[in-house]
Amino acid sequence: MSLRIVVCVKYVPDATGDRHFAEDLTTDRDAVDGLLSELDEYAVEQALQISEASDDAEITVVTVGPEEANKDGLRKALSMGADKGVHVVDDALHGSDVMGTSLVLAKAVEHVGYDLVVCGMASTDGTMGVLPALLAERLGVPQVTLLSEVAVADGQVTGRRDGDTATERLAASLPAVVSVTDQSGEARYPSFKGIMAAKKKPVEELQLSDLGIEADLVGLGGAWTAVDSADARPARTAGTIVKDEGEGGKQLAAFLAERKFI
Amino acid sequence: MPVTDVTSLIDFDSLLDDEERLIRSTVRDFVDDKVRPHIAEWFEAGTSPRELAPELGRLGLLGMHLTGYGCTGSSAVAYGLACLELEAGDSGLRSLVSVQGSLAMYSIWKYGSEEQKQEWLPRMAAGEAIGCFGLTEPDFGSNPAGMRTRAERDGDDWVLTGNKMWITNGSAADIATVWARTEDGIRGFLVPRGTAGFTTSDVHRKLSLRASTTSELTLDGVRLPSSAMLPQARGLSGPLGCLNEARFGIVFGAMGAARDCLDATLAYAGARTQFDRPIAGFQLTQAKLADMSVELSKGLLLALHLGRLKDAGRLRPEQVSVGKLNNVREAMEIARTCRTILGGAGITLDYPVLRHANNLESVLTYEGTSEVHQLAIGQALTGISAYR
């Protein structure tokens, strides 16, 4: 039986672009280009490596996001080598927080069918990093997060987590959810053949009703958190220049201590 | 908020489809990761990034617009966009890819026997084998018809004698496509590296394309089996057909070098202050930036138009001449004008502009000088050949 791998990816606003909040205090996605979250490329890469090491595996990439998430997010993952895509797109999703997104992803992953779910360590826009854990909880399966090395064999997923003080070797029985870090191995560039082949790969578009999700559980209304106000970051002011006249080191140390860096 | 990409001025991206944009951004990422951090060092040391060839092959960049034999089979526009991003890195890198795909591989793909294609194209597409293209000679540049290199029959064999000059990838090449005069007109031959009598020596002391290998090929009684000849090419139309392919890539490529100069200059002008304000705020600087962006935009639109014509199978050689003449000339002007905005910083390898300007000096004259392209256009307009 084939190994069913599902990779959850996010379409994020380009961090190098000029990002703003819209009137409802969600990210203004129209004003800035979007792309596949770079941290999710590591998840796609690890899924591809697991698939290549397996006799028979199929990779489905799942995303929850606006219309453009298909062409600029999913397509890149498909170009890298994933087999098919699922795109949950619904106006009611606008403004969802991680609680809503994890609910939708869990339903979508169940809809696809899975043995292993692979996530990136965090999104590059929200950078919360809690989605893999929430997803595992909602699915009721083991979670092995923040892996810098991952492999699948004999119905188990194994991996290595590099902590500050210890390196852990972990294992979980499948089905399971894992997340991989940016230390797990450089993500491949999509090959041009892959880019051309991706056009022909199937992408299933789903709405909330297809997954049996009530609209009031997601979106801005269903979010557990709310942004009350947001102000643009103040313009950068000129830095402090320390001239070394014998006391330079002490002045630097005092500067750092004052800002609690040391 | 200043733009981070000057091509957004005319929303150039809106003219591309999803696939073209993804190929473009893949090459841009590759250049950012693998080329940009090292290019100044390679240029200064005069070394060509030969070791990138397998990675270029994995991406599908080598012979990307050719079909079969492990090649990608992309559209001409996608190939052009890839050339643009490569040349935004360095003209030398784009030259490596142009010569490999459009000259060496194309000559085999278009004119070779099935055996020659099977033997060389898959390895060349993968970047495992490098090719070069020997047409120009020390005394015959714009006038290749006068070439002295000759191939003579000796039993079933051919014996080649002569010199080829200014050959990109020459000493790095595993296989050389060499054009030679025969009793039967000009014919092409595949000369593997290491064949007795075939030697290369590199051109040193270059001030341009320093991150690219440029060599002289010496053929001193090189004996080749009859199977080494490209069976489908007869006469000068063979090599000229290849050059037309490579020139097409330059039409896009030159705009990549220009864009890189402008992006660097916009960033510099915004950060550099004189008289207590960023120099980007001065009218003379803005006039330069505006004029350069307009020329870049026009060049991009021309390149894309020619690409669409090529994909429709309707691109004529004089149209490629229009593109090469204009886009290289304007790219040079942009690079030099950018240099004036960067002041002293512009003459260093800390910024890309003089490197690009110097590279473009080569691009201006190789694969048809500006003057030859003017004459090709002149002939198309008047019906009169000015040089024959």
TrEMBL record, chain A:
Q: Which GO molecular function annotations are given, in alphabetical order?
A: electron transfer activity
Gene3D superfamilies recorded: HUPs (3.40.50.620)
Q: Which cofactor does the UniProt annotation name?
A: FAD
Q: Give the record's GO CC terms.
A: cytosol
Q: Does the keyword Transmembrane helix apply?
A: no
* Superkingdom of this protein's organism: Bacteria
What's in the keyword line of the UniProt record? Electron transport, Transport
Q: Where is the Electron transfer flavoprotein alpha/beta-subunit N-terminal domain?
A: 24-215
Its biological purpose is as follows: The electron transfer flavoprotein serves as a specific electron acceptor for other dehydrogenases. It transfers the electrons to the main respiratory chain via ETF-ubiquinone oxidoreductase (ETF dehydrogenase).
Q: Which family does it belong to?
A: Belongs to the ETF beta-subunit/FixA family.
What does the record note on quaternary structure?
Heterodimer of an alpha and a beta subunit.
Name of the featured protein: Electron transfer flavoprotein subunit beta
UniProtKB/TrEMBL annotation, chain B:
Acyl-CoA dehydrogenase/oxidase C-terminal domain spans which residues?
A: 234-381
Signal peptide positions (record): none
A GO molecular function for this record?
glutaryl-CoA dehydrogenase activity
Where in the numbering of this chain does the Acyl-CoA oxidase/dehydrogenase middle domain appear? 132-222
Q: Which Gene3D superfamilies match?
A: Acyl-CoA dehydrogenase/oxidase, N-terminal domain (1.10.540.10), Butyryl-CoA Dehydrogenase, subunit A, domain 2 (2.40.110.10), Butyryl-CoA Dehydrogenase, subunit A, domain 3 (1.20.140.10)
Q: Name one GO biological process term.
A: fatty acid beta-oxidation using acyl-CoA dehydrogenase
Which cofactors does this protein require?
Answer: FAD
Q: Show the InterPro entries listed in the entry.
A: Acyl-CoA_Oxase/DH_mid-dom, Acyl-CoA_Oxase/DH_mid-dom_sf, AcylCo_DH-like_C, AcylCo_DH/oxidase_C, AcylCoA_DH/ox_N, AcylCoA_DH/ox_N_sf, AcylCoA_DH/oxidase_NM_dom_sf, Glutaryl-CoA_DH_mitochondrial
Keyword Magnesium: yes or no?
no
In this chain the Acyl-CoA dehydrogenase/oxidase N-terminal domain maps to 18-128
Q: Does the keyword Transit peptide apply?
A: yes
Query: Which controlled-vocabulary keywords does the entry list?
Result: FAD, Flavoprotein, Oxidoreductase, Transit peptide
Q: Which Pfam families match?
A: Acyl-CoA_dh_1 (PF00441), Acyl-CoA_dh_M (PF02770), Acyl-CoA_dh_N (PF02771)
The record's similarity note reads: Belongs to the acyl-CoA dehydrogenase family.
The entry's protein name is: Acyl-CoA dehydrogenase family protein
The source organism is: Streptantibioticus silvisoli
